[in-house]
Design goal:
By secondary structure, this protein is mainly beta. It has one domain: Nucleoside Triphosphate Pyrophosphohydrolase (Alpha-Beta Complex). About 10% of the residues lie in helices and about 40% in strands. Strands 1, 2, 3, 4, 5, 6, 7 and 8 form an 8-stranded mixed sheet that branches. The longest helix has 13 residues. It starts with 5 loop residues before the first strand and ends with a strand.
Length: about 150
């Protein structure tokens, strides 16, 4: 049997019509993630999200968030990858009216940030692979379960 599932919270942060993603690198390959990270034992989902937004983006205030707006179940296929199971709980927030010059990271895994137009995500490696969801979600939409996804 594989490892226990890990819970990861993240935020789809919009600034005008674009979405903020964080660049990570692993084994020489770059990929993009919604800002967020793991939930510690005894920590609420929103407390973990605000802690991660501070660490990964330098957003230190309690940014109002909506959601969860999506849940994604990432289970690595066997035997190609090491056993890994991550449940991504995605919230949404609006950065409009803020200066993004202050967006910085205190997390060594983050290699940079970028605002993406949702329609330019097709050629971008996003983990988990939720480009279609990011293109179509609108504030106020009900939460969705995006199923079991895995991106190599």
């Amino acid at each position: 049997m594989g490892a226990e599932p890990r819970i990861r919270v993240s935020a789809m942060l919009r600034w005008e019509d674009r979405i903020l993603l964080c660049r990570h690198e692993k084994d020489g390959r770059g990929y993009w993630l919604l800002p967020g990270g793991g939930v510690n034992s005894g920590e609420s989902l929103t407390d973990a999200l605000h802690r991660e937004l501070s660490e990964e983006c330098g957003i230190d205030d309690e940014l109002p968030v909506e959601g969860p707006v999506a849940i994604v179940d990432s289970i690595s296929p066997e035997p190609r990858f090491a056993a890994k199971h991550v449940v991504h709980i995605i919230f949404a927030g609006d950065l409009s009216g803020r200066s993004l010059e202050a967006v910085t990271s205190h997390d060594a895994a983050v290699r940079g940030h970028r605002l993406f137009d949702p329609h330019e995500l097709d050629g971008v490696v996003v983990h988990p692979p939720i480009q279609r969801f990011l293109r179509r979600w609108e504030p106020g939409d009900p939460a969705v379960y995006l199923g079991a996804l895995w991106a190599p």
